[in-house]
Amino acid sequence: MTLDNIEILNFKNIPNAKIEFSPGINCLLGMNGMGKSNLLDAIHLLSMARTISSLPDASIMKHGEEVMLVKGDFTTDAGAKDTISCGLAKGKRKSLKRNGKEYAKLSEHIGNYPVVISTPEDARIVSGSAEERRKLMDMVISQADPEYLNALIRYNRALDNRNKMLRAGVKDPILYESIENTMVEAAQLIHERRAQWVNEMAPIVEELYNRIAGNREKTEISYKSALNTATMKDVLANNRAKDQILGFTSGGVHRDDLEASLDSHSLRALGSQGQLKTFAVALRLAIFRYLKKKKGVTPLLLLDDIFDKLDAQRVENIMKEVTGDGNFGQIFITDTNRKHLDDILAGISGQKALINVSEGEFTPIDLD
User: Fold this and answer.
1) Cys bridge to 365: 14, 233, 264, 354, which one at CB 3.0-4.6 A?
2) How far is CA 83 from CA 44, 93, 292, in A?
3) In degrees to the nearest 10, what's the CA dihedral of 150, 155, 160, 163?
């Protein structure tokens, strides 16, 4: 799959732009704050119906403007052409359309135009909260598995209702059970699919980490969940008295976590910045493989500031990985250093483009 072009109106700091892309490598050059990352965010919006950091809709519109629009033309692996547009008017709900027809539900769009992005903040996948790692699992599995996404939506709605009951001081066990039955059913599927995902991802992450790091370190991932040793029904029943005191649901798949280790030690506790970044990139590339296999669609790959916190050898290994056999399709890379991007482009024989980014404006740079 490729994104052939994009039109942007009043998205973040980009006032008005129309950009044509190469189906191969697209390098975006510019100083910090010029709009490189915001362009990647606009691409992510078209693919996932939300920004990378899940900003509120009101925050993605350029300050002082009344409307925002991002529109892109995609070519699928089968050669079909689709136009996706995401629009927002002040005071109204976000609108997402495919070929001019609005989706009834945004969830219908998820997974049709998969995207994988690596950002400088990716170290938080390891060093941040468990919530960030759950969001990552949910985002990835939801792109490949609509049944999982539906179960997640049902679970979260029921969880919200149970928490409202706890805060309201409800004591009737029958009322709790009516809500918890939905949670139990959805949680079983969520736990099963997450466990499958981690089992499938673990050897791929290890393989990619070794390639990037030069076979110097061994990394592993594992899935932490209360449902590894108990049923959701038992977790809720056993915690109900405590939850009534706390005012929230203390146990369940909404507390799951993904753990990473390096040479049998906690990566979160002992990993250097370079090791955290290497793991995050390896995980993102493994996610790419997973989505491509499950969906039969080549995702877009967005590499934002890939040189950050990595030595030259690891960056070279990453670029060999993503450009060596053509399996990664269309790639977008941002950097502030022209030499970094020239070095990348010099090693690529296929289709490529270099675009200068300044104050929200995008200008192609002649590579001849």
Assistant:
1) 354
2) 15, 20, 21
3) 180
Residue 233, both tokens: 């029904």
Give the mean model confidence (pLDDT) for residues 294-314.
88
Q: Residue 95 pLDDT more than 70?
A: yes
Position with higher pLDDT, 253 vs 296 = 253
Q: How far is CA 263 from the centre of its chain?
A: 27
Label each residue of 38-98 as H, E or C. Answer: HHHHHHHHHHHCCCCCCCCHHHHECCCCCEEEEEEEEECCCCCEEEEEEEEECCCCCEEEE
Please give the order of strands across the beta sheet that includes 25-29: 115-118, 300-304, 331-335, 25-29, 352-358, 361-365
pLDDT of residue 325: 66
CA distances from 127 to 118, 281, 290 (A): 15, 14, 23
Site of tokens 């029921």: 158
Give the C-alpha separation, 9 to 231, whole Å. Answer: 49
Angle, CA of 133, 159 and 112, to the nearest 5°:
55
Mean pLDDT over residues 35-45, rounded?
95
Mean pLDDT across the stretch 189-203?
Answer: 97
pLDDT of 145 above 70: yes
DSSP label at 307? T
Element (H, E) at 188: helix 173-213
Spatial separation of the C-alpha atoms in residues 223 and 225, rounded to whole Å: 6
